[in-house]
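User: Can you help me understand a structure? I only have the sequence.
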Amino acid sequence: MIPVIRRIKNLAELGLKKEDLYNVYKQAFSRQPYFEYFPEGDLEEVIFRLECIINNPGSVCCVMFLNEKPIGVAGGYSLECEKEIVEILQESFPGIRPENIFYLAELAIGDGYLRRGYGKMLVTEREKYIDRKRFAYILHRTHCDNTISQALYGKFGFISIPEKFQLVPTLVQRDSKIYLEKQLRIFSWRKI
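Assistant: Let's start by predicting it. Here is the structure, written out as tokens:
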């Protein structure tokens, strides 16, 4: 069976149950290397995050279905919506132009569907919808030890930004993040 990917502009249009997308998200981010903790009642927070992805300017949200069941989600939007990340990057690149950078916010594949090329399919589909007239770069942030994510995005032409590394405190552990970028068109997002 071949999965189907649909771009969505609101959760209601596909008749999705919030719990179905929440379960995909929870399955993807509660395992290694993320180990995120999902307390009872976290459903609304996760759905709010996904709705923010859908509703942000220039956003792209794609959901992968297999037999009408959601098994994956990928989303992204303008970096200007991520104030914390902009501040972190401005430490190394004071002239950063967040309005010209597309931020890859999420890529989640549910349990039982890993290592089948579904992540690659979602990344490909999401990238089709990025407005290349507006965005000159794509930015992705991942865990330093998430070699699977780094390899996947490397296949799509992403390179590590060597000047940027981030330590993020979490409930479970201290989290190390790196940033990867891909240039879509010639444009300087940093003042030289």
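Now, to help you interpret it: Confidence is low (pLDDT under 50) at residues 168-173. The chain has one domain: 4-183. Let me know which part you'd like to focus on.
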